[in-house]
Design a protein that fits this description.
It catalyses: an S-(2-hydroxyacyl)glutathione + H2O = a 2-hydroxy carboxylate + glutathione + H(+). Pathway: Secondary metabolite metabolism; methylglyoxal degradation; (R)-lactate from methylglyoxal: step 2/2. This protein has one domain (about 1-110, about 115-135): Ribonuclease Z/Hydroxyacylglutathione hydrolase-like (Metallo-beta-lactamase, Chain A), CATH 3.60.15.10. It is about 20% helix and about 35% strand. The protein is built from four helices and ten strands, in the order βββαβααββββββα. The chain has helices spanning about 35-40, 55-60, 65-70, 145-155; strands spanning about 1-10, 10-20, 25-30, 45-50, 75-80, 90, 95-100, 100-110, 115-120, 130. The strands form two sheets. It has a six-stranded mixed sheet, covered by helices on one side. It has a four-stranded antiparallel sheet with strand order 7-8-9-10, with no helix packed on it. It starts with a strand and ends in a 7-residue tail after the last helix.
Length: about 160
């Protein structure tokens, strides 16, 4: 598994996740699709999935455009967060795969928005896992900091790390 950071807007990132053996890729929060596609093309990656953390424009704002640019791409988003362009709704505990070696666990992290999803991504056994949290830790959200920490502590039952 290889992860590329794609700078977007003034202070944001999208992330390109690549299965090294198949060159299939997923992108987290493709707010600027053209930049994401440039990164994918420069690494010979065939984009298959979009992983959207939440519905705000600085994360989901590029979903419709990337669907136009990459026909057939699947756009994942929360079952309850009304993510623009979403083709596949996910909830806590859902599992997806990418290529031959990447597995994605969806974690409901309702701290910034009620439907916020974080993605725990694993590759081959010897590779370090990664978690993409979007704005989970953003201090402005739908829950108080104490409530948010309670929700995050519940995730330990899903954690394999």
């Amino acid at each position: 598994m290889k992860i590329y950071h794609v700078p977007c807007l003034r202070d944001n990132y999208s992330y390109l996740i690549v299965d090294k053996s198949t060159k299939e890729g997923a992108v987290v929060d493709p707010v600027e699709p053209q930049k994401v596609l440039e990164a994918a093309n420069s690494h010979w990656v065939n984009l298959k999935l979009v992983l959207t953390t939440h519905h705000h424009g600085d994360h989901a704002g590029g979903n419709e455009k990337i669907k136009q640019l990459v026909p057939g791409i699947k756009v994942y988003g929360s079952l309850i967060d009304n993510v623009i362009g979403c083709t596949d709704k996910v909830e806590n505990g859902d599992k997806e795969s990418l290529g031959a070696d990447i597995y994605i666990l969806c974690l409901h992290t309702p701290c910034h928005t009620k439907g916020h999803i974080s993605y725990y991504v694993t590759g081959k056994e010897e590779e370090q896992p990664a978690v993409f949290t979007g704005d989970t830790l953003e201090k402005v959200g739908c829950k108080s900091p104490v409530e948010a920490l309670r929700e995050l502590r519940k995730l330990k039952d899903n954690w394999k790390g």
